[in-house]
Specification:
Strand order of the largest sheet: 1-2-10-7-8-9
Order of helices and strands: EHEHEHEHHEHHEHEHEHEHHEH
Number of helices: 13
Number of strands: 10
Shape: globular
Helix content: 25-40%
Largest sheet: 6 strands, mixed
Strand content: 15-25%
Structural class: alpha/beta
Distance between the termini: 24 Å
Length: 314
């Protein structure tokens, strides 16, 4: 995979009765098909971080995440392809008690491990201190020098990468929508809007009022974006039977698979707003598919334990 060559993903039109009824055009930008593991915003966020790490002559990357983190596996795979050693600080020290068993059960960590990532499992309390000087120094004592990529991948280099998601043709859309985790993708989209009349709507995947401030750190624009906090389904990695059924129904009707942590919540929100006549007739909406499909295997394991409907994988 060439991180230096520009990648432009295709827009796929979504055809559903509600869209015809409300006279709304909805397209999905298929960032999810860039790569099986480094898909969606992960490719965008890592591209210039890898370039910066090479400029600084670093041989290793260190990053952070949970046991089902898309970012962890994307960093491991991208690092491996680009010739870096990778280290992952993983939240949950109990996961390190029997690594062999965890790797058998957890597809995310297994894929990261198979791509050469070494793990350091830490308590949730210690994880909260992960960016402190003392913690980073401990990691350097353990693993040597490295380039640090933040949890979720958001920093100035990630924003630069996310500013390349939209193409010149995307100026035709009235609204650009994306799910929001750390805010980096949304900031990149806001910065790269092609026309003044365009607006960005972010659908946070987690609770909290801090996201707007995080986004404002990376964009000087205001008035052309907003966050809709009504579709987080209880918080990060929280979902219910209604969301799972919606995802399966959407996949069956469109052939596009969504994940319940990010893109499923975004699409549920977009279609709910359309039903509620939040957009005038003739509106053209572009939804960004930020990937995250690799995490579905782990979510289905949890759903199976609870005897609940599973996500149908294509």
């Amino acid at each position: 995979m060439d991180f230096n060559s520009p990648i432009q993903s295709k827009n796929q039109q979504i055809l559903l009765p509600i869209l015809e009824e409300k006279k709304i055009e909805l397209f999905i930008k298929r960032e999810d098909v860039i790569h099986p593991f480094i898909s969606g915003n992960k490719f965008r966020k890592l591209k210039y971080n890898l370039e910066e790490a090479k400029k600084l002559k670093k041989k290793s990357l260190l990053t952070f995440g949970g046991a089902f983190s898309n970012h962890i596996v994307a960093t491991a795979v991208a690092g491996n392809l680009a010739g870096f050693k990778t280290f992952g600080v993983i939240r949950g020290d109990e996961l390190g008690n029997n690594l062999k068993e965890i790797l058998e059960q957890n597809a995310t960590l297994r894929a990261a491990h198979e791509n050469g990532m070494k793990f350091n499992f830490v308590t949730r309390e210690l994880y909260r201190q992960k960016t402190s000087f003392g913690f980073i120094e401990k990691m350097k004592n353990k693993w040597g020098d490295f380039y640090v990529i933040p949890e979720g991948g958001t920093n100035e280099f990630a924003i630069k990468g996310c500013e390349e998601i939209l193409s010149a043709e995307d100026a035709n859309f009235d609204y650009v929508c994306a799910s929001v985790g750390t805010g980096g993708t949304l900031a990149g989209l806001i910065n790269s809007l092609k026309k003044k009349k365009q607006k960005v709507i972010g659908f946070p995947a987690l609770k909290g009022n801090f996201l707007a401030q995080e986004i404002k750190q990376f964009t000087t624009k205001s008035g052309n974006w907003r966050l809709d906090k009504n579709y987080n389904f209880g918080g990060y990695a929280k979902y219910n039977e209604e969301l799972i059924s919606f995802i399966n129904d959407f996949t069956e009707k469109t052939g596009v698979l969504l994940d319940p942590v990010y893109t499923g919540k975004m699409m549920f929100g977009i279609l709910d707003l359309i039903k509620k006549d939040s957009f005038p007739e003739g509106t053209k909406i572009l939804a960004i598919h930020t990937g995250g499909i690799q995490g579905i295997h782990g979510i289905n394991q949890k759903l199976e334990k609870k005897n609940l409907e599973l996500i149908n994988v294509l």
